[in-house]
Amino acid sequence: MTLFARPPRAPAGPPPALVRMRLVATGLLVLMAAVYGAARHFDGVHPGIGFVRAFAEAAMVGGLADWFAVTALFRHPLGLPIPHTAIVPRNKGRIGDTLALFLRDNFLVPGVVARRMARLDLASAAGRWLSSPQGGDGRIRRGASRMAAGLLDAVDPNRLGGMVKGAIGQRLRTLEVAPLMGQALDAAIAKDRHLPLLNGIIRWAGRTLASNESLIRDMVHDRAGSIMRWTGLDETLANKIIDGLDQMLADMAEQPGHPLRAKAEEGLRRLAFDLQFDDAMRARAEQVKLEIIENPAMQRWIDGMWESARTALLRVAKDPEMGRGGRLGEALMQLGETVQQDARLRATINRFVRRAAVGTAADYGDGIVRLVSDTVHGWDAGTITRRLENAVGRDLQFIRINGTLVGGLVGVAIHSIDVLL
Prior knowledge:
This protein is mainly α. It has helices at about 15-40, 50-75, 85-90, 90-105, 110-120, 120-130, 140-155, 155-175, 175-190, 195-210, 215-225, 225-230, 235-255, 260-275, 280-295, 295-320, 320-325, 325-340, 345-380, 380-420. Helix 1 runs parallel beside helix 20 (about 380-420), helix 4 packs antiparallel against helix 19 and helix 14 (about 260-275) crosses helix 15 (about 280-295). The protein is rod-shaped.
């Protein structure tokens, strides 16, 4: 199973402009041959016929020579294995290496990338695009949306989903949560942000006590002796226990300096310390984390999260206006306006992009060069011949036309000198 389902691509034929220019050059050569034949037939009728014959004769020579030169670049003329012909197919490896070196020396040198990126203000362009309600003329947005929608449609959902979920799971497994939890708890205690949690626990304990009074009374009754049950002291003792616990929880909720609250806060501080520095506590936290990750319910939650994210991304990609609406659209517009108004933020973004581009050139420049070289090496002779001929063949046909005309003029000049002398 492949990640992307690519339909087979048929070989591209020559572009119409190349076909037209090839017909023009060949037609001009045929015309010169016809003119030459006619001039030979009527030779001697008029002195000017000699100049016409000389022009046509030299034009044929020039046109044929340039046809041979142009054809020899890409194939053997007339299929004959003449030495030093079919130059491009025979040297495709050297062409690929030269192209790769040119790309590396002129575009993938970190210093060159840094100079080019220094002249670009990508942050301002991004800010204008984000802050514009219509996103400029919309072409970039529509093009990006079509590309994203096509990508999401082409990707195998099961394989990509497995990759995403695998990456999430791997990231969670390698993430050591205990120190993060300890640092977060330390920060919360330092700014008294743990107090709502502590108050919530106390209120929960009060509600739990109120809803389980009968359980406490039954426990006291079962454990009391027969004399206490006969005299009703078990009920009195149960009431005292319940009232005492209720009063203790009420005091803890109302008195910030209550001794039990202090004990609870001391326990939280100790927990924060152990999560960060106690090996046994960190190991227990990691074990709990792994058990949660491996839990089938957690796996189902990750599956649902991925499917929801993919569906939302596909919906937004197919309707780019949806992405600019609602809270997300408002946040993007605000971000764009902030970028446009804050010069320091723009400088920071541009510096980050420049460093990222330079770092990419430094880290992956050689890999890109090898990719270009290996790609050209992997092309068959027909592919590289077809692609290069389609790219520059039209201009080469002009060489044939110019050769025909220049050859004819040279022939006229030679004939003129011969007549004059």
